[in-house]
Amino acid sequence: MVKEIKMIQKNQTWELVERPTNRKIIDVKWVYRAKQNADGSLNKLKARLVVKGFSQRYGLEYLETFAPVAKLDTIRLLVALAIKKQWAIHQLDVKSAFLNGFLEEEIYIDQPQSFVVSGKEQMVYRLKKALYGLKQAPRAWYARIDSYLVSLGFNRSVSEPTLYVKKNEAEIQLIVSLYVDDLLVTGGDQDKLAEFKAKMKDMFEMSDLGLMTYFLGMEVRQAEGKILLGQRTFTLKVLSKFSMENCKPTSTPIAIGMKLKPRRS
């Protein structure tokens, strides 16, 4: 919780002001989560300060909310291209990504529980940047990261707004795929790749996770000349949920009694 508050203050997300009489004050709450590794083991414990966005009013506290995310087909296409080009895929994780999105609306929130400023209990925070839980938070973050990637010389795909390509004449230098706060980066120019990581770290608080190993529930293993995708942990969770851990395995799951007919050309 202390780390979360320090991150919010570091990003200059809010400012303490007198409680306005003509504006709605939105409540906040703490949400706790255990983040796991690809094998299901504990990675870290996280505390997130979340705005109760369900109480926001359209036209006053928010307008547009839509923000694109990468399609699974795009991720698979990126993997296929990396294999063909013999490129490695790297993964970056932006810490508290939504705290970087600038707000256009005037929004006030209560001081969070356990972190009320002594002697200023009646004051509230006015948000300058987004917080998790706000309806427009994903859109504000996407607008921020999109404008920064474009400023670095990337071209946004017309058909996939979360896919960015940087070229040197006709040669592809880097490809970036964005899924909320996770970025996949691949390319053949290692100098450009290192330069890109450095610029991203200068702009945002983020972690360099190295080679992609776990993404969207997929376990990834990159070996020489190939990339292996699997969902063993997810499969075991599904089996456990339905008490099927001891069921007999089969190489081709199919409904009992179903008959297959050859397709006519």
What does this entry look like structurally?
Residues 11-254 form the Reverse transcriptase Ty1/copia-type domain. The chain contains five helices and 15 strands. It is an alpha+beta fold and 265 residues long. It has a six-stranded antiparallel β-sheet with strand order 8-9-10-11-5-12, with helices on both faces. The chain has a four-stranded mixed β-sheet with strand order 1-7-6-2, with no helix packed on it. The protein has a three-stranded antiparallel β-sheet with strand order 13-14-15. Strand 9 (163-168) and strand 10 (171-179) form a beta hairpin.
Summarize the helix and strand pattern as letters.
HEEEEHEEEHEEEEHEEEEH
Radius of gyration over all CA atoms, rounded: 23 Å
Strand order across the largest sheet: 8-9-10-11-5-12
Number of helices: 5
Strand content: 25-35%
Overall, the morphology is globular
Quickly give the structural class: alpha+beta
Major β-sheet annotation: 6 strands, antiparallel
Distance between the termini: 63 Å
Name the average pLDDT: 89
Helix amount, in percent?
10-25%
Quantity of strands, as a count: 15
Spans of 5+ residues with little confidence (pLDDT < 50)?
none
